[in-house]
């Protein structure tokens, strides 16, 4: 209940419809709308071995849920699906669709070996 009250407060303060506020967030985080490449088939891929070339450039590496690496302007997560025999790749940037395309291609190239 409280989250909805907070959302209503933001709508009231900004004087904009919820769709406009959501649109702003979606534009600020390209890649969150499902415009990622299709999932990678082949769970036999060892993500750390394949993406290891990026480790020296990463600001942070987290192995909690697959392999996550964070860089100055972008980040990615690579993990096996819990429900399908797939490897999922999520790449995010902050309002930079060109960087999103470039980094997605770079990670995919590393994974293809």
Largest sheet geometry? 5 strands, antiparallel
What's the count of strands?
5
Low-confidence stretches: 32-37
Helical residues, percent: 25-40%
How are the strands ordered across the major sheet?
Answer: 1-5-4-3-2
Query: For the terminal residues, how far apart are their CA atoms?
Result: 48 Å
Percent range for β-strand residues: 15-25%
Taking all Cα atoms into account, the compactness measure Rg is: 17 Å
Series of secondary-structure elements, N-terminal to C-terminal: HHEHEEEEH
Give the structural class: alpha+beta
Number of helices: 4
Global morphology: elongated
Q: What is the average of the pLDDT values?
A: 80
Topology:
Elements: H1 2-14, H2 18-28, E1 40-41, H3 47-51, E2 60-62, E3 67-70, E4 74-80, E5 86-93, H4 97-112
Antiparallel strand pairs: 1-5, 2-3, 3-4, 4-5
List keywords for this structure.
alpha+beta, 21% strand, 113 residues, 5-stranded antiparallel beta sheet, 5 strands
Question: Can you describe what's shown?
Answer:
With 113 residues, the protein is α+β, with helices and mostly antiparallel strands. The chain is built from 4 helices and 5 strands. The protein has helices spanning 2-14, 18-28, 47-51, 97-112, and strands spanning 40-41, 60-62, 67-70, 74-80, 86-93. Strands 1-5-4-3-2 form a 5-stranded antiparallel beta sheet. The radius of gyration is 17 Å and the shape is elongated. The relative contact order is 0.17.
Summarize the entry for a quick read:
This protein is of the alpha+beta class. The protein contains four helices and five strands, in the order ααβαββββα. The termini are far apart.
């Amino acid at each position: 209940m409280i989250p909805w009250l907070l959302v209503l407060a933001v709508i009231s303060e900004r004087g904009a419809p919820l769709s406009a506020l959501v649109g702003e967030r979606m534009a600020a985080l390209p890649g969150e709308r499902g415009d990622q490449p299709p999932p990678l088939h082949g769970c036999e891929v060892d993500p750390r071995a394949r993406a290891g070339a990026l480790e020296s450039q990463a600001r942070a590496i987290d192995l909690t849920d697959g392999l996550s690496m964070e860089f100055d302007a972008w980040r990615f997560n690579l993990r096996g699906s819990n429900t399908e025999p797939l490897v999922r790749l999520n790449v995010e940037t902050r309002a930079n669709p060109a960087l999103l395309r470039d980094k997605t291609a770079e990670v995919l190239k590393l994974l293809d070996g």
